[in-house]
Target: Sulfate exporter family transporter
Amino acid sequence: MTTYREDFLDYFRSIDRKIIPGLLICLAVTILSFLLTRGTLWDGGFAVLSPDLFTDNPFFSFLAKIGPIVLALVICLFINYKLFDAGGSYAGKYLLRIAIILMGARVTADVLMTASVSGLGIILAVLALTIILTMMLGKRFGQSWETSALTGTGNGICGVSATLSVAPVIHADQKYVHAVVGIISLLGIVGVFLIPAVAFGVGMTDAQAEVFIGGTLHEIGNVIPAADLYNAVSGGEDVSALALAYKMIRVAMLVVVASVFGWLWCRRQEAMHATCPAERVKAKVQGFLILFVVMAVGMTALIITSPAFGHAVQTSLVHISVTVLTIAMAGVGLSMNLRQTLSVGKTLLPLASVIWAIQVIVMLGLTLFLV
Model:
């Protein structure tokens, strides 16, 4: 298990000439995406195109509803060149983490106070159900115990981050890790479009949409573009901040779930070998998630002590976070080889899809009746 210092140094160790072409493509696609959806070159930037264009012209009006984050992701999904892989991977991993840290500026105390107790209960109940069902159905779908554990954690908590955190705890083979990461990433991308469409289609209120989006999507990076899509089509209030807060409730359960799986893995080893043959590995909360909380607490304190200045800083950080997230999501699309992902994880896709479908359906029903 690496230290937080080593994790921090990885941001710089991974910088070399190979990432430059991919990063430039991500930056170019980001600028294009903002231009086509907002008429600016970055979030909150000066207008290059007339704002009237995005209300009067049907094509640009449609693109405005899609938003820059989703558009950048979609464009880069169709750019599959090995030259851009390194830069896309760097943006999709490290810049995404930086964007998530900055997103903490959205989740202040005044936002959290609007969260519902029923929403919190639903989030935790569906999380537990997702993981238990995955372990029960995994064997029937021909998957190993390790694969089921990683799939349940990825679906239930926070996608790739959860998968990579639990993998060393249960000493999972890398072939299982790669398959789960690929399939979870693919389903997360599908969810960016599917979940807001379902929320709007069934006529959810904004409060319900916040719980539904925050409780069903795999990655933190999936929540904001999905919330943006819902905001665009529903025309209601911004649901991004609270959807992100509900998502962080799932993330907070990572250490607990990882510890349980570590205990179960050791019991399995003892059953086979009469002893636990390998050193127990403890899961840790990833550094960028800790900094997310620090950002949220710090922004809350700043707004309380100096409201005008605090809100100005918050606005600037939100604009920066959206811009960086757009670059990062372009990187996710750039580094996602759909054909390879389906090839590696084709035996896992049915299990992961069924579990996620059940998760979405249960979350949908509970949210509509209890929130």
